[in-house]
Amino acid sequence: MSRVAHSVAMTEAVDATARAHLLRRDGHEDLCFAFWYPSRGETRLTALIELLILPNPGERNVHGNASFEAAFLERALAEAASTGSGLALLHSHPLGCGWQGMSPDDVAAEQGTAGAVLGATGLPFVGLTLAGDNAWSARFWERTAPRTYTDAWCGSVRVVGNRLAMHYNSRLAPPPRPTKTQLRTVSAWGEETQADLARLRVGIAGSGSVGGFIAESLVRTGFEDVTLIEFDRIEEHNLDRLNYATGADVGRLKVEALARHLQPRATANHCRIDRIAAPVYEEEAFRKALDCDVLFSCVDRPWGRHVLNFIAYAHLIPVIDGGIRVSRNRLGKLAAADWRAHTATVGRPCLQCLGQYDPGLVQTEREGNLDDPRYVQGLPDDHPLKSRQNVFAFSMACASQQMLQMLALAIAPLDLPNPGAQLYHFVGGFMEQPVFGECTAECLFPTFIARGDSSGVVVTGERLGPRDNLSQPVQKEV
User: Fold this and answer.
1) Cα–Cα 20 to 30 A to 306, which of 67, 113, 343, 373?
2) What is the DSSP string of 432-446?
3) Quick check: 212 and 258 in contact, CB under 8 A?
4) What is the pLDDT of residues 401-417, one digit of tens each?
5) What is the pTM of this model?
6) What is residue 111's three-state secondary structure?
7) Sign of dihedral through CA atoms 11, 17, 21, 25?
8) What is the tens place of the pLDDT at every residue in 178-225?
9) Was domain 5-168 assigned CATH 3.30.390.30?
10) Phi and psi (nearest 5°) for 404?
11) Domain 180-454 has CATH 3.40.50.720
12) What ranges do the domains of the chain cover?
């Protein structure tokens, strides 16, 4: 068995089309092929199902079970090879529930096809099974010896869109039992929902004031796998907003101080906290982010947001973003304090369309200019990059709003997963009407959906400015 973990992801649209085809009214099994593109994290390879290849008349047989003709496989292989994608076989077990195993016929069909697929596409053959209760299961067929292919089972399948639906392999990702410290949490939504939440792999880009609150909220809620991505260090002027730091932590990496703070506060029996001391736009942290099922954006620089925005669509990992803006009037009094929260995912507007970053400043940051005091001083006084005011209470409120966005996405209470993009005004005490909809017609990000590493777009790189200057942090706190 491979040491690399595997998973599969698809959009709600692909999931709906597959269900409509595979779950027949007559109760028979059915099948189809699909294109997939790789999303390679540090420890996990995900097959992003991009497009289904439905059978033409005469290309498959439905007889209780289902089988494909050689002509269907040949057509699917030719189309996959021409697009540079991998090939997947999807079939249904309409009488099954939950994660499905494989019959001897299933194994023979997939294992016997794996060599031809690898030869034609250069990528492993992927098999998926859809149960009658809409649950997916999946595996990769890996070449382990000449003419020998072995199944490498996925730990999960995620369906991404207006909501995030997770399907877990309980053998590789067993549902955790609630602990006594989670009694009140579990009573809000039940053990099944708690088990699904706890198994989500969650990443937080940015360990400032908002990121710290979100991280503590996650581990207290019972999440078992949290990744912290941030290379900045703690400074004295951070201490009025960091819930996890004291004066003794000044000079330490934020991810190290935060991880030490979180571990004793985790309510899960086993809580893994990964620490990545690098910004999300560098390759190491970027690949670690691709190991996650959902990401929190707690940075307010354009390059980091640009990378996370790309991940949300190209790699099908929803991104929960937020931000705080505080301003004073000419007398130096508080005039406005606003915070927002929203989710960037397929079917919702991206961070660029929501105005969360200026794409023109991404290259400016890559060149190190945003860490050049002369450049920053030349910006208008009201420019967001010069606005650094914040208050502990504002960070708490923003973090709470982002957590609620994530919970709505994953739990979908009363089938309401989308609260919209929210903006709260402290001065005046009101929430604006939420923003719904999709990206603008001119936006490029929807064209990258499910293309992963094959998108042809490179968003990572090395920043050209000073790297470890404590007075000029690369990722400014939210």
Assistant:
1) 373
2) PPPB-----TT-SGG
3) yes
4) 999 999 999 999 999 99
5) 0.94
6) helix
7) positive
8) 999 999 999 999 999 999 999 999 999 999 999 999 999 999 999 999
9) no
10) -70, -35
11) yes
12) 5-168, 180-454
